[in-house]
Amino acid sequence: MKNPIENLNKIFDSRIRMGVMSILIVNEEVSFNDLKQMLDVTDGNLASHMVNLEENGYIKVHKGFIGRKTNTTYSITRAGEKAFKDHIEALENMIKGMK
Amino acid sequence: MDSQHPPLETLQDIKRIMERSSRFISLSGWSGISAGICALVGAWVAHDRITGYLHTRRGGSFYRGEVSTLSPNTQSLFQDLIVIAAITFITAFVSAFLFTWIRSKRNGTPMWDRTVQRLFWNTVLPMTVGGLVIIRAMQLGYFEFVAPGCLIFYGLALVNASKYTLGEVRYLGYGQLILGIINMWVSGGGLYFWAVGFGVLHIIYGALMWWKYERKS
């Protein structure tokens, strides 16, 4: 029998990374500040998770300016979308398996 | 430690975060109720004014022809009705805004973030287009299209808006659309259809939403 947990994506174990992906999958482009506010986390904490997701190729970073302030926004990549959907499917299969 | 979360809870979290980040969910039921009451009061005042006008006229057709060709008496009626409509719209909008503002403060959600901006734009666009169509219809003398026009364009605005706020708004939109479409074939009953759509439906919707989401808090 297949181990149901093997399909889970380790990267989304973190609740913050899971939250970021949940937001980016339904919103085209979201700024760092909006993410921070929606997930209620600190700058440093969120930044390290964003770097992790970017290194895995799941999100794209867009650096821009509003006046003189930097405005960093993020969007999900194809690979990110697929990985997150697979993760959700794996979770659903675990629930079905438990019944 | 994070991997200890059971899958069902994780899925529920994902769904909750998706909804919170893409929809404005602080829309208060009281907003619907107060807008409905404003609409009923406005319709009642307008009804009074029209009844008064009809008493000063005997016979003849009521609505027809370009505005410039109407008698001074009729023109003053239309001016009054437009003022009543504008005051009704402003009071309904302000009161609806107020209750939602209070609720969003209480929830700790921002009142002007991306979800609100999207909701606002997607509601205002169909309503503005509808407003222009109705103004033009009035200029051409098609007054019987005012009430159905309001109901239909508002209904479309609500169906469109429902993607960006509480999903139930869609059913309020369907209600307005049905009333508006029926009203196109029932001439003379415009004000009653208008009062049912903007007054009664809003109050029912607001009460149901309050019961569903706000009763406990």
Structurally, the number of domains of chain A stands at: 1
Domain tally of chain B: 1
Identify the overall geometry of chain A: elongated
Q: Which outline of chain B best applies?
A: elongated
* Separate helix tally of chain B: 7
CATH fold call of chain A: Arc Repressor Mutant, subunit A
Give the helix/strand class of chain A: alpha+beta
As a whole number of angstroms, the C-alpha radius of gyration of chain B is: 21 Å
In short:
The complex is a heterodimer of chains A (99) and B (217). Chain A has 99 residues and is an alpha+beta fold. Chain A has helices at residues 15-26, 32-39, 43-55, 78-98; strands spanning 30-31, 59-66, 69-76.
Please describe what this structure looks like.
The complex is a heterodimer of chains A (99) and B (217). Chain A has a single domain, classed as Winged helix-like DNA-binding domain superfamily/Winged helix DNA-binding domain (Arc Repressor Mutant, subunit A, Orthogonal Bundle), CATH 1.10.10. Chain A is built from 4 helices and 3 strands. Chain A has helices spanning 15-26, 32-39, 43-55, 78-98; strands at 30-31, 59-66, 69-76. In chain A, 26% of the residues are buried. With 217 residues, chain B is mostly helical. Chain B is 76% helix and 0% strand. Chain B has helices spanning 7-22, 29-56, 72-107, 114-139, 146-161, 169-185, 190-214. The model of chain B has no long low-confidence stretch (mean pLDDT 88). The A-B interface holds A 13-15, 18-19, 22-23, 25-27, 30, 34, 37-39, 88, 91-92, 94-95 and B 2-3, 5, 7-8, 10-11, 13-14, 17-18, 20-22, 110, 113-114. Chain A: InterPro entries: WH-like_DNA-bd_sf (IPR036388), WH_DNA-bd_dom (IPR027395), WH_DNA-bd_sf (IPR036390). Chain A: Pfam families: HTH_34. Chain A: This is Transcriptional regulator. Chain A: Residues 16-95 form the Winged helix DNA-binding domain.
